[in-house]
Specification:
Length: 305
């Protein structure tokens, strides 16, 4: 299988560009090989496979034991793949669903049509960020978790819960307790949820901003401290003791991540797979919205989930 690919470094870090040879289809990419490469690289760009949306969705399902969704996005190819269709502004670096305990292991992208100018997706390796932060800042995030607190409407938390339950319960019977029960499956991270009279919830999620990853115990600074809030209330982000993250610490994080951020210069048909526990992603401002067409999928590879 490997002789059908050419593999070279992507960017200045560990990322890899995997280019198909001999017109190989996407289904020649084997699960074990892909996960092995992803563990080493943090993110992969697959080029030259020219997949359809259906073939992309099939690869996601072959690698992931479970998928999830963003209720604010448009669906395609069943419940696996969604359009990236939220605004045109630049998006800060973040971990997908990093502000809640249902954070997926992997984030997948398919570029159906690339923009003619700009509009790149960005990636930033949390291993490298952690190594470049000052000792004082590293100590702050080792000593304390961060908390994300926000309100979420029923139209958002209910379909997310239904997706993760995979049809095990009728949508109209799903309760806040079902959401809390699902969150408890994802480890010892702390979640408190308060139901509102209008069906909304207010949640407070506590998690380490620096932590081990899907593939090992090495610490990655991978979180949503700098991330976006399209179609959602912006969360309050603070340390677990209630103290604000100091302005100078945020500025240091912004400076370090800006220096280490890589651009994914999309070509038509590119697929990118990102270790969502290690690598943050974002995007440059979209300058060619009429042409740019990108799909996203989110999934888990741990059978216990």
């Amino acid at each position: 299988m490997r002789q059908h690919f050419e593999i070279r470094r992507h960017g200045g870090g560990d990322g890899a560009l995997v280019t198909a040879t001999e017109n190989r289809p996407l289904d020649t990419v084997e699960r074990d090989w892909l996960l092995e490469r992803l563990a080493a690289s943090g993110y992969l760009v697959l080029r030259g496979f020219e997949p359809s949306v259906e073939q992309f969705s099939a690869l996601v399902r072959s690698v992931c034991t479970r998928t999830t969704l963003d209720p604010a996005r448009e669906f395609s190819a069943g419940t696996t793949v969604q359009k990236v269709d939220l605004g045109t502004d630049a998006v800060g670096l973040h971990v997908e669903h990093g502000t809640n305990p249902l954070t997926p292991d992997l984030t997948w992208f398919l570029c159906e049509r690339a923009a003619r100018v700009g509009s790149q997706t960005t990636v930033c390796d949390g291993y490298r960020v952690w190594e470049h932060l000052s000792e004082e800042t590293r100590r702050l995030f080792l000593d304390q978790d961060v908390v994300y607190a926000r309100n979420i409407g029923e139209e958002t938390w209910r379909p997310l819960t239904a997706s993760l339950l995979s049809g095990a319960k009728p949508d109209d019977e799903i309760t806040v307790d079902d959401l809390v029960g699902l969150a408890a499956l994802f480890g010892e991270d702390q979640l408190t949820v308060r139901a509102g009279d209008d069906g909304s919830i207010h949640y407070v999620y506590r998690v380490g901003a620096a932590h081990p990853t899907l593939f090992g115990e090495r610490i990655a600074f991978a979180n949503s401290i700098l991330g976006p809030s399209y179609h959602y209330e912006k969360p309050r982000i603070a340390f677990a003791d209630g103290e604000e993250i100091p302005k100078e610490v945020i500025e240091e994080i912004e400076r370090v991540t800006a220096d280490l951020t890589e651009d994914l210069d999309w070509q038509d048909g590119d697929v990118a797979i990102v270790d969502n526990t290690r690598v943050m992603h974002g995007r440059r401002a979209i300058e060619d919205a009429d042409r740019r067409s990108i799909y996203v999928a989110l999934g888990y590879v741990d059978d216990r989930r």
